[in-house]
Amino acid sequence: MITQEYKINELFETIQGEGTFTGQPSIFIRLQGCPVACSWCDTKHTWEISLDEQVKTLVITDKKQETAQWATFTIENILTLIKTKAYQAKHIVITGGEPCMVDLTPLCLAFESRGYSTQVETSGTFEVNVTENCWVTVSPKVNMRGGLPVLGSAMKRANEIKHPVATEQHIDDLQNLLKNHCIIDTPVYLQPISQKNHATTLAIKTCIANNWRLSVQVHKYIGIE
Ligand code: SF4
Q1: Cross-strand pairs, 103
Q2: Ligand 1 pocket test, candidate residues 30, 48, 49, 123, most atoms within 8 A of CB
Q3: Ligand 1 mean position to 123 CA, how many Å?
Q4: What does the pLDDT look like over 35-50, one tens digit per residue?
Q5: Measuring from atom 8 of ligand 1, which residue has the nearest CA?
Q6: Would you say 6 and 107 are in contact if contact means Cβ atoms under 8 Å apart?
């Protein structure tokens, strides 16, 4: 019997638009709660876990727009929902909010034992508790308002590092992180913030100079979630 529960803001099927798995049909599980407080965050509605916003699971499954509403799901609830919706994707993306505030190992195990691949997207400010096979995307958030440091353990666990970029300072922050935590071989993606011209030009130039990769949030260009 699996008893672990998760606070979920959204659960939907789409195409992964970022990083190594770009183009991969995926089921996104968006967890509620994040204390990191990035100024450019495009999911600010996931920050607070307000009891006033707690709803029944059915409300989450039928969401038509972004809201701060969340519901508690058991793993059985999640598996049942995916079956009911007849989702076809075999890749699970656990995102947030900041999903690593909770132990994700039981969730990953439940999916992997049923033939799914799993991926978690984290800011690197919490210990990453996932299965060995889970693909870990660390999008390190340095000097954010929440005041949480990026952890060396998270940087070392990363299968890919996806860094949001708008200014030269963001590049310097990343270079320092890689140096301080001796990260050498992990693939690095630069992701221009908000598709702005300066950010995109800077990211392209820096990727070429460092042999890094560009991640352009494909889902935003083609207008899907
Ligand atoms: S870590 Fe992610 S969810 Fe949290 S504030 Fe930053 S961008 Fe938003």
Answers
A1: none
A2: 123
A3: 7
A4: 999 988 989 999 999 9
A5: 41
A6: yes
Instruction: Tell me how far the alpha carbon of residue 4 lies from the centroid of ligand 1, in angstroms.
Output: 24
Report helix angle 197-210 to 168-180, nearest 10: 40
Give the H/E segment covering residue 26: strand 25-31
Flag whether pLDDT at 204 surpasses 80.
yes
The residue-averaged pLDDT of 20-28 equals 96
Mean per-residue pLDDT of the chain: 94
- Contact 43 CB / ligand 1 (< 6 Å): yes
Q: Is the pLDDT score of 16 beyond 60?
A: yes
Q: Which of 221, 34, 7 is nearest to 123 (CA)?
A: 34
For ligand 1, atom 7: residue with the closest CA: 41
Cα(139) to centroid of ligand 1, in Å?
A: 9
| Predicted pLDDT at 2 | 53
Atom of ligand 1 nearest to the CA of 97: 3
Q: Which two tokens stand for residue 62?
A: 């039928």
Q: What is the mean pLDDT of residues 1-7?
A: 77
* 46 C-beta neighbours (distance < 10 Å), count: 25
d(CA 195, CA 198): 9
